[in-house]
Design a protein that fits this description.
With about 950 residues, the chain is α+β, with helices and mostly antiparallel strands. The protein has 31 helices and 21 strands.
Length: about 950
């Protein structure tokens, strides 16, 4: 190629034949690069879509499962003003008037607030319940029941008639109508003894009372849906205590359902009648990006321009109330807490992918170094060579990235497109720029053939030292910020904080690369004095590894750190849920009586001990609200504490097994003879107790007198524990039950590997229908993942799998980079008598130093990263946002998971050994003549 021809022709003219020629010459490399770009672009495009998908599903889930009493938008307006003509007042509350207002209110709602019209309703009701005087109505404590009278739209579409007839109007109902028809649900009829044909009279403001005759008994369809559950009183009566009475007296409160056009009859009652419209929310159209607009719209409807529009459509005095804003706030709080934790995984796996892509570009550059050096020596410009390499790479990378984007869009839910486009485009740009830039930098100056550039002879430059110190300061700052600010709150969205594990892995790689020559020199010197050439040659070859081999080590360290951190997150979530389940039950199973201190029958205790799978039963006596006053000066008002009477030996074993406040059993052994059952203990006998820190502080160091239902006691604190299996309270004291005068067992804590839940529940039911059985396994299952939690855990699992895959690629690329040299070396040594077995040992020992360095370094870095970042990472939102909150932990700290640390590290060593063995086997199958060609620079 003449220099003139290169300069005379433009790059676009020369690129087409060059690209076509290169693709035809090396199709395998092009396909491999395209496959890697396809996979990486798919991950880059799928991640934002997966995050937005689970956030969207979480929002829709939270709205769908929320209690309709909180999620439904409730609009109400007082009865029409008295100065309006009576005919207009009556027309306004009939079906036609309320339906017209309902449609107008629907059109006034913001677009983001869509409603489920099948579960929405409207009507006219008495705002205050009215006492019923009929003597045949049920009166548990001889208190008149209170009834609410309401019309309800669409009743026939949401209920089934069980007896009688549907209520209807006969003629036109006005405020003077003396009688109307009504209906009640089956639950209301059963509780209040109402039958079809019953009549209930309520007073009016006129002389003639209003009679409601019950014509039908109905059964609600989907009683849990918003139509019936927005005001549960419509379907289910309730017992309400009378205010300011001790002991309390209860009365029934219920609702009677009238036909829609019977509403004018309620205008004459003294029950503060009002119109209502209920709009059940439909969250199926909402996305995570709609949250700010949804929150703003709800606030506007409750007291802003939105409410003004509703008042213009319905009534000038209308008011809207809803707790939808609290639902959205809880969702946003959970998303804010989970988001930074997911970002940590995304940054980690993104860094690993970027390093592997750079390694791929480096491998291509090394394989083509001689070719490009020849072009440079023949007059090729850096711009021309870089343009050819850019076009050659773009022809493969850009279509692969576009295909990865299309696959991600087709397979990962509905989400915004532009974040996925940005991710896939970033991958394509990185791949297209890596090879031209690397080649341009390498060929700026002529390079001497055979010059050494290895770990043993390389000396870090000042620029490298400055860059490493800068990265070190960034890593220290990120770790300190994460420990102080955590992943939640204002610090959670900081990208530097999310990159803390990556920066720690980067610093570790730099340190290990600097330290690697030291052990190699020591090992080389010790092996040099021994017989045999395999060990000496392998260490010499390991020391001749390119000084630019930090990228493989960095990729492995980042992959191992990401896998260790992700595994630790998943293990921390599981541990937090296990701990919360143990706290909720205190053992594998828990059996309680119907009241706070109701003793369990002896028969139940015997049957539980004999049930299948039961290993041990700890019977305890629990007494709540034992008054404990402070010792000495200060607040002398007694505070309630929970006293737990136990068998010391059995309960100590249970506490040790569950990890809930273990203590030595002999701490509870009191000196002197124990009191016989039914007699008070001696006044001089001091009982040792194990107490919580707060109770121990109030009891002090000396003996204290306590008055309990189990007798008067004199106790002394013998030790403290933070928690205990029997109760989840933070104020408790544990005492030997044998020292109590009343030793009834109120709770059974059962341990066993495979408990027969059916047998336990049968025994409890035979003892009484109010006895409860709670299993730890069921409590654990109650922590059901919400879509947001499930999505975050899935991303961490995918990050671990992707990290393992990229670690595999890093090992393969690292070994492929030096594969020609190793093959040629084996061929030369075979001509000098090296056996196949020795060849396998040589390649294996040569690859082991870096593999062992990466494995040990990855294990240590993963452990150190988890330990350093643990104070700033709280998994409670990810682990416990769903499920029973009783006894749940306040925090869920991050801890290092042994399997997540060791398995990936061992996998790197095994994989490296396997690849080296395969390479040696393949090299021995080929003849030496093929490898040893004249003029071959290898």
């Amino acid at each position: 190629m003449a220099p003139r021809s290169v300069r005379g022709r433009g790059v676009p003219v020369a690129c087409a034949p060059w690209v076509r020629t290169r693709l035809r010459t090396a199709p395998g490399a092009a396909w491999a690069l395209g496959l890697l770009v396809l996979l990486t672009s798919f991950l880059a495009a799928a991640f934002p879509r997966a995050v937005e998908r689970y956030e969207t599903e979480g929002l829709r889930h939270d709205i769908a499962v929320a209690d309709p009493r909180h999620s439904v938008l409730k609009l109400r307006a007082p009865q029409p003003a008295l100065q309006i003509p009576q005919a207009e007042r009556e027309a306004a509350v009939r079906e036609v008037g309320l339906a017209s207002a309902y449609r107008a209110a629907l059109s006034a709602l913001p677009d983001v607030v869509r409603t489920d019209t099948t579960q929405s309703s409207y009507g006219f009701r008495t705002g205050k319940p009215i006492a019923a005087q009929e003597s045949w109505l049920s009166r548990p404590d001889r208190v008149d029941p209170e009834l609410t009278y309401s019309t309800l739209s669409g009743l026939r579409n949401h209920a089934t008639l069980r007896s009688g007839n549907w209520p209807a109007v006969h003629g036109e109902v006005s405020s003077d109508t003396p009688e109307v028809e009504g209906a009640v649900t089956e639950e209301t009829a059963k509780a209040l003894r109402i039958k079809a044909g019953s009549a209930i009279t309520l007073p009016t403001q006129g002389r003639t009372p209003l009679t409601v005759r019950i014509t039908g008994i109905v059964t609600p369809e989907r009683p849990e849906a918003a139509y019936w559950s927005t005001q549960p009183l419509l379907r289910t009566p309730a017992l309400i205590p009378e205010p300011d009475l001790e002991p309390p007296r209860y009365h029934w409160t219920a609702a009677l359902l009238l036909p829609p056009d019977a509403a004018p009859a309620l205008l004459a009652t003294a029950g503060a009648p009002e119109a209502f419209w209920r709009f059940a929310p439909d969250g199926s159209h909402l996305t995570a990006s709609d949250v700010p607009e949804l929150r703003s719209s709800i606030a506007s409807l409750e007291g802003g321009p939105g409410l003004v529009k509703l008042r213009a459509a319905v009534d000038e005095d209308a008011e809207l109330s809803t707790d939808m804003d609290e639902i959205v706030t809880r969702y946003d709080t959970l998303r804010t807490a989970i988001g930074p934790i997911v970002t940590v995984a995304a940054v980690g796996i993104g860094a690993v992918a970027a390093v592997v892509l750079l390694m791929t570009g480096g491998l291509i550059g090394v394989r083509r170094r001689s070719e490009l050096a020849l072009l440079r020596s023949r007059g090729g410009s850096l711009r021309g060579i870089g343009g050819r390499l850019l076009a050659e790479t773009a022809v493969t990378a850009v279509p692969a990235a576009a295909l990865g984007l299309l696959i991600a869009v087709a397979t990962v839910g509905q989400a915004r497109l532009w974040p996925s486009v940005v991710g896939a485009a970033a991958v394509a740009v990185l791949v297209c720029a890596a090879l031209p830039l690397r080649t341009t930098l390498q060929h700026r100056r002529p390079q001497l053939h055979g010059a050494r550039d290895d770990l043993m002879s390389a000396r870090p430059t000042r620029r490298r030292t400055v860059a490493e110190l800068t990265l070190l300061m960034l890593a220290v700052g990120a770790v300190v910020a994460l420990r102080r600010r955590g992943t939640g709150g204002d610090g959670g969205g900081d990208l530097l904080i999310s990159a803390a594990p990556v920066l720690v892995g980067l610093i570790a790689a730099l340190v290990l690369v600097r330290l690697l020559p030291l052990p190699l020199r020591l090992a080389w010197r010790s092996v040099a004095r021994r017989r045999g050439a395999v060990g000496f040659l392998s260490l010499a070859r390991a020391g001749r590894t390119s000084a630019g081999g930090m990228l493989p080590l960095l990729a492995l360290l980042l992959a191992l750190t990401t896998a260790a951190f992700g595994g630790s997150v998943l293990a921390g979530v599981a541990d937090a849920r296990d701990d919360a389940a143990v706290r909720a039950t205190g053992a594998d199973a828990r059996i309680d009586g119907p009241g706070l201190s109701v003793p369990l029958p002896d028969r139940l205790i015997r049957e539980v001990r004999g049930a299948d799978g039961v290993q041990e039963v700890a019977g305890v006596r629990i007494e709540y609200d034992v008054p404990v006053s402070a010792d000495g000066s200060g607040d002398q008002r007694p505070k309630g504490a929970t006293m737990v009477g136990v068998d010391p030996a059995t309960y100590a074993r249970l506490a040790r097994a569950t990890g809930l406040g273990a203590f030595p059993a002999d701490r509870l052994k009191a000196s002197g003879p124990a009191a016989s059952k039914g007699t008070a203990p001696s006044g001089d006998r001091v009982l040792p107790v194990i107490a919580s820190p707060s109770v121990a502080e109030r009891l002090g160091d000396g003996p204290r007198d306590l008055s309990t239902a189990a007798g008067n006691l004199k106790v002394r604190v013998a030790g403290t524990v933070m928690r205990t299996p029997a109760v989840s309270d933070s104020d408790f004291l544990i005492v030997d039950a044998a020292s109590l005068s009343r030793r009834q067992t109120t709770t059974l804590l059962v341990t066993g590997g495979s408990l027969d839940a059916k047998a336990l529940r049968t025994a409890a039911h035979d003892a009484g229908k109010d006895f409860s059985v709670r299993l730890r396994s069921e409590e654990r299952q109650a922590f059901v993942d919400t879509p947001m939690q499930r999505g975050a855990e899935g991303i961490y699992a995918a990050a671990i799998a992707a990290g393992a895959g990229y670690a595999l690629l890093a090992v393969l690329l690292s070994l492929l980079q030096t594969a020609p040299e190793r093959t040629a070396l084996l061929a030369r040594l075979r001509t000098m008598g090296l056996t196949s077995r020795q060849g396998r040992r040589l390649l294996g020992l040569e690859a082991m130093p870096q593999a062992l360095l990466a494995a040990v370094g990855g294990l240590l870095v993963g452990w150190a990263t988890t330990a350093l970042l643990a104070p700033g990472v709280d998994l409670v939102s990810l682990a416990l946002s769903a499920g029973p909150r009783s006894g749940a932990t306040d925090t869920a700290p991050l801890r290092a998971d042994l399997w997540s640390l060791t398995l990936p590290a061992l996998g790197v060593v095994v994989l490296t050994a396997a690849v080296a063995a395969v390479q040696a086997w393949w090299a021995t199958r080929r003849g030496s003549i093929t490898e040893l060609r004249a003029g071959d620079p290898r």
